[in-house]
Input
Amino acid sequence: MASAGSAVGLGNLWRFPTETGQHGGSAFLIVYLICVVCLGLPVMISEFVIGRSAHVSVGRAYSVLVPGSRWKWVGRLEVLTPFLILCYYNVVAGWTLRYAWESATGGFVKMASSGAGNAYESFFASFVSSAWQPVVCLFLFMAATHFVVVQGVSKGIERWSKVLMPGLFLILVFLVVSALTMSGAAEGLAFLFKPDFSKVDASVVLSAMGQAFFSLSLGMGILTTYASYFNDDADLGKSALSISAIDTFVAILAGMFIFPAVFTAGVAPSEGSSLLFIALPNVFQSVFGDLWILSYIVSLAFYLLLIVATLTSTISIHEAVTSYLVESFEWSRRKAATVVSCLCGSIGVLCALSIGAVPELTIGEMSLFDAFDYVTAKWLLPMGGLFITLFAGWRLSKQILLSEMTNRGTKSFALFKLLVFAIKWFCPVGIVLVFLNELDLLSF
Ligand code: TRP
Output
């Protein structure tokens, strides 16, 4: 459940629709599904095997399994990545707080009754370009994450997420059903599901691969760390399968209400963040017509649950960096967490400002925010995945792999040969080809 909680987050509800919108809808979806099955699953299983056989978190797992080798640098890379992700993930996490607040104070209901067609759009634009609002939200969210991480990932959050994640799911289903009754439903679903292979090019493949790693929480050893807590009789193959299935299902549900809503509201599907933050409030207010109390309740419930889904993810990202500092430098948990929160918070402020108040904050052509997203999701995570499979396929003994997959011979695992092939050859070669292709060193 904790792994699924880490997987389901803004990656599904914000990043997936954004990427899908920008890369041609259905074409992206198909490439994405292929990436989840062919690259995501084997990498996830490798992370599980490494974590459960080493019994320590990722920063040290490599040193435990192969003492004194250079593989420890992979462990370190896998700590840098979550650090960078946390910096910009928190910005969007902060937005969810602002939207929950606006729902709670009835702001969205008022916008609906004001009759101005673009009220939601201007609300979003003025919020993100404000110099202080996104920053305050970011700090609040960081503080909440910090609080939980300092306590250790408490029983509380696990217990809560077991109740709240199914709640989020029910709301999603409800949203899909209501979105299907909207006038843009057919167009929206066609955009998401009608394959158009002419749109598949190098950047679509790189983006789909990055999104698969991001959404499944792969490539930076989070799942290695979590797997070090798994029971000896947990079935690694089945766990990987169900986590991927839940995560993918949630992403597709998100697409199934966002795109109909987008086409109904007349927003261009490729507009990125605005999909979730403009189209969605619009749906809440328009499906219920005059029954404003219902739209009030549903929109508030949705944003509160979105906060929970996001928090389970920020905790896992924060925890990855914090536990490394605790183990490697023998800092106290409080000190490590404080250093991480302060550093990520400060860099996060720059990311937040770069898409609003201070557009000069750029790297190359991209805003700082986009640059962080691009470097981590599209390059560092797949690169982490590459090293993980190289390690599991070539360095780790096959006996360990077999013994972990069969729980020390107590059960059978029919697809072992296929798995070994995927981990040894298919994943590393596939990831490298996608990289080369993006760098224009290959022309497909
Ligand atoms: N998977 C989460 C999401 O979809 C984000 C996340 C949590 C993550 N932990 C991670 C991404 C580890 C990459 C690696 O929102």
About this structure: The chain has 19 helices and two strands. The pocket of tryptophan is lined by residues 6-7, 9-12, 85, 214-215, 217, 220, 222, 313, 316-317, 381 (CB under 6 Å).
